[in-house]
Design a protein that fits this description.
Blueprint: E1 11-12, H1 21-29, E2 33-34, H2 40-44, E3 51-54, E4 59-62, H3 66-87, E5 103-108, H4 111-119, E6 125-129, H5 131-134, H6 143-156, E7 162-165, H7 193-198, H8 200-213, E8 219-223, H9 229-248, E9 259-263, H10 266-270, H11 272-276, E10 281-284, H12 286-293, H13 312-327, E11 331-334, H14 345-351, E12 355-358, H15 363-371, H16 375-386, H17 391-399
Parallel strand pairs: 1-2, 5-6, 5-12, 6-7, 7-8, 8-9, 9-10, 10-11, 11-12
Antiparallel strand pairs: 3-4
Helix pairs in contact: 4-6, 6-8, 8-9, 14-16, 16-17
Bound molecules: phosphoenolpyruvate and magnesium ion.
């Protein structure tokens, strides 16, 4: 986070996983990254003259010979050419071959991401990770500063929905400003909405800023790490309180903002019908849903082989969430990294997902995948995937 962007070509890490927040930042910056290389990396690169990074293949080359460097230069040129072709497709609607509209939105961490989303033809922001705006700060930004940020993001995508997630710190996202205690199991600890409800002085200013930004924009508020219905109700009560405070102060704000939630804890998926009566929309966070369902730390390279977003157990939770949501007329999005994997697009549509939100740079390929999908075939594919015994079988199914 502290390296100047114009000097950062890519990075390799000894630790980490594909959906750890360091990797998510790399995708959002559009730079290659290779993670989980092990501690020996740190000695290997000492005094090295040339390092070459192939993010697609997950390879770091140390002092590569000239022919290897040339191969990578050719690859870069080829990828640039492919992107130029994809850029000509940004105005095509994200409609399946048989005419079903699938919302295609972008994940963002700041206003620059929102501009990239606009360039790639996103129909809005499906996930604004607000904590990433504040990571490097020693004090939390106040309401006015937050308001300016949300307005800047909304200005990049006029008249489009902007889904803003309330602060989701803890886990692998530290926040110096909050001086969070060290925990033995941070992903199972004081994280996300749990902190916001215990410390309403952190959540209330954010809710007020969002309501104020919503006076002139379609701001949708999304809660992270919701586990129980009681938590959702307490958050809604805080939103009502924020609105009362703004009304008392005579400040303009959104009248009836949508309040939705991430489905990223298995309990939320298993209990989706109860949540569907309360929440205006669902967005499935497959990154956390995978780690919590499979009991597998998303940032721990030792278990990265076990971290499988396409595991049938995860797919079953996605299907259950869609079924329960649709029974109550609610929309379901996916905003975890699986949404940006174009190979999985027909499967997600077949499972019942209405909307996909991914990094701006992945939108074009996902759009192509949506347009190539037939929903009847997608439902058959989903049924076969749900009948698989293991993630490897699902991968084979998608490859076939
Ligand atoms: C997720 O868990 O899938 C998600 C989108 O949230 P984050 O990656 O920020 O935890
Ligand atoms: Mg998450």
């Amino acid at each position: 986070m502290s390296v100047p962007r114009d000097r950062l070509l890519g990075f390799a890490l000894a630790a980490g996983g594909m959906t750890a927040h360091s990797s998510i930042l790399a995708r959002s910056l559009g730079i290659p990254a290779v993670v989980g290389l092990g501690d020996s990396l740190l000695d290997t690169v000492q005094g090295t003259e040339t390092l070459a990074l192939d993010g697609g293949a997950g390879i770091l080359l140390v002092n590569p010979p000239e022919h290897e460097l040339q191969r990578l230069r050719d690859l870069v040129a080829q990828q640039r050419a492919e992107r130029d072709v994809l850029r000509t497709e940004v105005d095509r609607p994200s409609v399946t071959g048989d005419g079903v509209m699938i919302g295609l939105l972008a994940n963002a961490a700041n206003a620059a991401d929102a501009s990239a989303a606009q360039e790639w033809g996103a129909a809005g922001i499906g996930l604004l990770r607000t904590e990433l705006l504040f990571l490097e700060r020693s004090a939390l930004p106040d309401e006015e500063e937050q308001l300016a940020l949300y307005q800047a993001v909304a200005a990049a995508l006029p008249n489009q929905p902007i889904t803003v997630r309330t602060l989701d710190v803890g886990g692998d996202k530290p926040m110096p400003a909050l001086a969070l205690p060290r925990e033995a199991n941070p992903f199972l600890g004081w994280r996300g909405l749990r902190i916001g409800l215990d410390r309403p002085e952190t959540l209330l200013p954010q809710l007020r800023a969002l309501l104020r930004a919503g006076a002139n924009a379609d701001i949708r508020i999304m809660l992270p790490m919701v586990t129980s219905v009681a938590e959702f109700r307490r958050a809604r009560a805080l939103l009502d309180e924020a609105r009362r405070q703004l009304a008392d102060a005579g400040l303009p704000c959104a009248d009836t903002p949508q309040l939705g939630m991430m489905v990223e804890v298995p309990a939320a998926a298993l209990n989706a019908a109860a949540f569907a009566r309360e929440a205006d929309f669902f967005s499935i966070g497959t990154n956390d849903l995978t780690q919590y369902t499979l009991a597998c730390d998303r940032g721990n390279e030792r278990v990265s082989g076990l971290y499988q977003p396409l595991h049938p157990a995860v797919l079953r939770l996605i299907a259950m969430t869609c079924e329960a949501a649709h029974a109550y007329g609610r929309h379901v999005a996916v905003c975890g990294d699986l949404a940006g994997d174009a190979r999985a697009t027909p499967l997600l549509i077949g499972l019942g997902v209405d909307e996909l939100s991914c990094a701006a740079g992945q939108i074009a390929l996902v759009r192509r995948a949506i347009r190539a999908t037939d929903t009847t075939a997608a439902r058959e594919l989903a049924a076969r995937a749900l009948a698989c015994a293991a993630a490897e079988e699902v991968h084979a199914l998608l490859s076939a």
